[in-house]
Amino acid sequence: MSAPDGVPGGSPGRVPGPAGSRPAGDRSIAKPPDAREGESAGLKDEQTLGDEPGLGPGEAPVDAEKAGHGGPAPASAPPEGAGGIAHRLETGILWLDTDPPAEPALGPLFEIAERQNPRRAFLFVSTLLGRHIPVPAARHAAALGALGARVASALAPGTVLVMSYAETAVGLGAGVARALRQSDPEREILFLPTTRHAVAGRTWFGFSEDHSHAGEHLVLRPAPHPALGGGTLVLVDDETTTGRTFAALAGALAGQGLAFSRIVLATLTDWSSGAAAEAVRAASQGAAHEARPDVRTVSLVAGRWHWRPDPGVALPALPGARAPACPPWAPGPDGPFAAPRLGRAQEAPLPFETLLARGLPGPVRGRRTLVIGSGEHVWAAFLLAEALASHGEEASFLATTRSPIRPGATIRRKLAFPDHFGLGIEMYLHNVDPAEWDRLILMTETGPEGIPRELLSALGPLHLIDGAGQVHAPGAP
User: Fold this and answer.
1) Closest Cα partner for 246 from 256, 235, 254, 257?
2) DSSP labels, 80-149
């Protein structure tokens, strides 16, 4: 896949390959800006349609002529100060101007899609993240290593607290923490993501992400650790525009009395032009920090954008509630088959041999395997794909999501279904065609009851790994 002319690191939309081939067969999400002209805002996820012949239940067909998401716009006078390439979307025109990517070997880093969200018109869909577009395990690992190396170069001496955001960046933060531990095994490093699932007796504090489709975040109280204040705080997200999401968490930590000698903001794509660092400095100053803290930013690509909304087109509403398809679920104890929401002070390797002993068929060199995580439970899906790839499988991964994105050139397949957790919301699986894969593995923190029939019916034969690490084979060959 090649970048649009003049926009290094970007892609105007999904470039399909032959069925089953996954050379550049990766993609994922980064967040969306506000739909107000000239404002640099933060982004994130969107929709559902009825059944169509040739598509899975609830899957959205795509009219490529109508969609045209992310394609360069016809000649149009750019606003004063806006440079780069214009991309016409259904709700307006987006101008993008990016710097040369830090790691050209990683290829295009994002694509453009449109959100189903009245507060955000569009989003940058990461090709590296493994959320909305399947990404080969090796390519994701390379991105983690590249971002982790940049974070390592920005750390202050002492301990490190790495935090990332549910649901999109849970795995990204875990990967940065892993890279830091690998580069400096003696350093005290704690990884603690936000979550949207409470654990009884463990809630520490919460904060809001005002632009998101699911804005409330919880931070659970980890076991005591030296990194809880005093060293470097590393905040990891897929993308930043205004920095408001970073500032909300930094301010909440300061409100808990935690002060850090340095704060590092790490993203795959940084569209903030310095605004993110300034927002975090302002939010962190106060009781915990007597002076404005030292804030640094690292990313794999940076750039600028300008959004001109079409005044004649209204932004779509968020999806409504959906009847729960399973009993309410609550997280249990932490473990290798659970999302790391209670914090991880050391790496927890996936017990690959245990899965094989419990009935997961072993790897076959050259077999095309897709591992699908669920919501915040994405890190284990990557670890399994990585383990399979180390044995010669062509293993990729991605995860189901709450993010409602409109179908188009980037989101070519979309399956909508009731959530895994009995919350009464809609969830989605993007860009998965079972015919392109030799086998599918689905990982969930719940039991099999958390996998709705719509999802099972659309995917067909697969192996299911639950939160206890038990292997189920509903319809597997």
Assistant:
1) 235
2) TT--SEEEEETTEEEEEEEPPPS-GGG---EEEEEBS-TTB-EEEEESSSSSSB-EEHHHHHHHHHHHHH
Q: Order of strands, edge to edge, in the sheet holding 368-374?
A: 135-136, 394-400, 368-374, 439-443, 463-465, 471-472
DSSP symbols for 46-79: -------TTS-TTBPP--HHHH-TTPBPSS-PPP
How confident is the model at residue 120, as a pLDDT? Answer: 82
Query: What is the radius of gyration, based on Cα positions, of the chain?
Result: 21
Distance CA 357, CA 209 (A): 42
Q: Is the pLDDT of residue 68 over 70?
A: no
Quote the mean pLDDT of the chain: 84
Place of tokens 């009935």: 359
Task: Tell the residue number behind the tokens 């041999």, with chain if given.
Answer: 353
Q: Where are the beta strands (DSSP E) in 241-365?
A: 262-270, 294-309
Domains of the chain and any CATH numbers = 143-304 (3.40.50.2020), 352-472 (3.40.50.2020)
What is the Cα 477 distance to its own chain's centre? 31
What distance in Å separates the CA atoms of residue 13 and residue 112, rounded to the nearest whole number?
A: 6
293 pLDDT band (50/70/90 cuts)? confident
**Lowest mean pLDDT segment, chosen from 53-62, 146-155, 468-477:** 53-62
Cβ atoms of 428 and 414 within 8 Å: the answer is: yes
Q: Within 10 A of 264 (CB to CB), how many other CB atoms are there? A: 27
Q: What residues pair up with 10 in beta bridges, in sequence order?
A: 110
Q: Are 459 and 439 in contact (CB under 8 A)?
A: no
Candidates 38, 263, 266; CA nearest to 145 is 266
CB atoms within 10 A of CB 3: 19
